[in-house]
Amino acid sequence: MSWANSWGLNAVDLARAQFAFTMSFHIVFPAFSIGLASYLAVLEARWLLTGREVYLNLFNYWLKIFSVAFGMGVVSGIVMSYQFGTNWSVFADKTGPVIGPLMAYEVLTAFFLEAGFLGVMLFGLERVGPRLHFFATAMVAVGTLISAFWILSANSWMQTPAGHAVNADGQFVAADWLKVIFNPSFPYRLVHMVLAAYLTTALVVGAVGAFHLLRDQHLAGPRVMFSMAMWMATLVAPIQILAGDQHGLNTLEYQPVKIMAMEGHYQSHPDGAPLILFGLPDQSEGKVKYALEIPRMGSLILKHSPDAPMAGLDTVPRENWPPVPVAFWSFRIMVGMGLLMFGLGLFSLWCRWRGTLFQSRLLHLFAMAMGPAGFIAVLAGWITTETGRQPFTVYGLLRTAESASPLATPAVGSSLIAFVIVYFAVFAAGVIYLLRLMAQPPHPGEAGPPSNIPARAAGITPAVERIAP
Amino acid sequence: MSAAVDLATLWAFIIAFAVFVYVVMDGFDLGLGILFPLFPAKADRDVIMNSVAPVWDGNETWLVLGGGGMMAAFPLAYAVLMPALYTPMIAMLIGLIFRGVAFEFRWRTQRERNRWDLAFAGGSWLAALAQGIALGAILQGVHVEGRHYAGGWWDWLTPFSILTGVSLAIGYALLGATWLVLKTEGALRDKAYHLCWYLLFAMLAAIAIVSIATPFLHIQYAQRWFTWPNVILTAPVPIAVAIITVLLLRALANKQDSQPFPLVLSLFALSYAGLGISMYPYIVPQSITIWQAASPENSQFFMLVGVAILIPLILGYTGWAYWVFRGKVRGGYH
After folding, report:
1. Within a 10 A sphere around the Cβ of A14, how many other Cβ atoms?
2. Where are the domains of chain B?
């Protein structure tokens, strides 16, 4: 493929671009549906416990949104499960015996559970009754969490491999399954990712609530969802910052080079490393230009001591350097989003205390602006951790360049172009439909996902449930 | 026989089972998409979509189990076959994307509904053809050197693989038509009955042509089919196909709604058994056996525990979901 060659791209670069592209699209849907499935279970539980109609309306409202997002997650996920074989066959051959079973367990314990109960959750309330229906909703929510467990275990094993041996064919094999599954970075990554999914969903729910409150602050449904979402932001954002800090310390222990890339530490600092706030990392010169830094703060955060020595990339052979500019900036974007979420949580708490939670236009505008913040943070965090692992697929053991399929450049280039075109066409339409659903406020007697039940008679717009001013 | 041999054979059966469940379950979903252009009325299309909307996602999960299970249990075969089937696999995935999102998207828009109906039909066609072509490409064998696929990215394209692609699309369409007979009423059901006749004869022709062509691919297939003692296994297959055909013709003539679907499923099962006899014990025909491709024993055993406990459970709640949505899909209701 001449365009690829003229840019100096080879099949491995194109395969990496394809994985990054398809994964970036995929990851936002599970991040949203993990949180949303749990939120739906909570809404239905509150409906069953209180009998309040507003919870059922909210449940049906978000269920429609869930069904669209979940469908996009499923189809983009199947692409991922086959991409290991199509573009990364050497990786699949060598790691299949270790991470293959983890992914097989994901299918057996999570995907089937979600899919098996999804139909009843979407369409079955009248057929099975509320209690059994709640059970189905809960199973879907549990399924999304089990799915996160296994796939993050597999991902974490690639970051911090443990419990394995290598056989005569050069394959990784499990020596101790518990050590494989509960590898050193897994517990931290799991907590960090599930909290991220909950925050992402809370911010979307909050933004939708705020959007409708800006138009009418007495709407019952938006008030309930906005209040619930702001509680999540208030409580979970600080926990997430703590969890992220712990995850960072774990990374420092097991993947110090990734931390060097995230911090922009090209040089070693024998008497305390600075915290570089911003700057332009220059990979070829091996330094951060125009660095704005706080002396010794880096050592204080990472080693809890301002004078602690910290090694830099100058102690690492250049062929093992991750792409520092990418990891450096994506990390800052993630942290920035996290701090803004924390700020939103505090602001909403203050408004709640003053009794202006449903009145403050400033809060509502802030919450609306933060609607996509969770997705941005998830993507930035994922880019940080995956580029920080480079140039390896299995950290320190299997190089990315030696993991790809023996394919001709045109084959990988063509499939990349096909995925780019299809994803933009399909998922852009999906996002538009999601936004259109969100632009409507929840109505009393809100219907669930459409079957072929005839739509409401034309011309009759149902009244909107309002709380008396 | 050592324990490893037993495990590999067992896993070959488990993967084969997953793929078969996928073929029959997503087969009728895809078949509905293939037949979609023949049902232009919106009301019919709504009923057709609703007859599978609650279950299509579960059906597709078996494909993930087949692929993921193969990477885990036979990583070498997965690593060789996926690059060999590169283009059909990408085409299948893209087809499944269009088909899958259409289930949700077509309810979300009035103006663009036709576009998503087209995506549903086109995606189903693409996925079905790609799966059939992949099957043919596996049967005709791939060029392996060491632990890698060593052929080009168009090796899969032969008259034989096109034949298997078209055959599978016909088979899926027949499954879809019999599903409609089972799940719908009135004019829609009658039209489906009508289609069943044509599609049944097309499928029988496809089975015959593929069966005649396969032994010519490799002398090993012919030997496997026609030599003692394998002939004990292969000889009853045509007889059973004939018996099922008679039963099917009778069910179609007498309009017994619940019979054609399971009978076509048994036709699929017989064809699948024929395939299994042809391939065993190779997982990549003529180059890699299931024992050469197998994961280490502890990987296969670790997963076997999960399969033994979870597959019955999965079949249980999947069956329950089908039971919840049992019966005819009526206009206006599930």
Report:
1. 24
2. 3-324
